[in-house]
Please model this.
Amino acid sequence: MLDVTRVSKRFGERQALAKVSFRVEAGEMFGFVGSNGAGETTTMRIVLGVLTADTGEVR
Model:
């Protein structure tokens, strides 16, 4: 299972993510899409441990 709870990230004055939460259960397939600049890459970098979240938790 992947559990992302209230994850936020800032780069200087720019708020990249604001309290993002979602859960993917074992065996589920999950699509993660959005327009350019919506925070998909930042979220996935946090999930993979490449970036650290300013607040929130990934389990």
